[in-house]
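Handout, page 2. Input:
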Amino acid sequence: MPPTSLTPRTARLSRLLLVGAGVLTGGVFGLAWVVDRFGQREQATPADVLVVLGARVLPGGVPSGALRARTEHAVALYHRGVAPRLVFSGGVGVNPPSEARAMLALATRLGVPAEACVLEEGSHSTDDNARLTAEVLRGLGARRVVVVSDPYHLLRARNCFRLYGWEVATSPALETARDLDTFDRVYWTVREAVALLLRPRVLLARAPTPPAS
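Output:
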């Protein structure tokens, strides 16, 4: 006959699995709370450059809602005098043109001179954004930088820039469905927390040591 109760060894294993699942679940939701709180804070201060991270381009070259919101927020910061230059970062995805070029087209329609904008069109991930934009920023001689993206994305974005030697301030584009809709906000924030837990090098990135004066 089959046993009517778990063996002591199986019982211990079951308890360990339950404890592990509880710790993992608590870790995900705890980190999600940190991601959300960090992303909702406006940290923009006067800078040399605004860096705008790309998002999806729709068929026909139409900016997605996230891409439009990020660009419009960066343009508003530019018009407020936060920084005199913008770097648009994002390559070609499913639909052309590049995310950077779609942002440029929108920004110039909103009154930003084309000569104030620089494009980085090779990136296809947040790590690419940071790595390739870091090269652009060095070429521009920038020192103070503000990064613009969706709130849920900003902690990972900042930490990726840290890995390439930059300590950046962040500024959230709040007028997106992913932030205004409660379900979307929870979904994308939890998804981001899981992504960070799977990338401990990014999660634990520390601020770079400032150069000696």
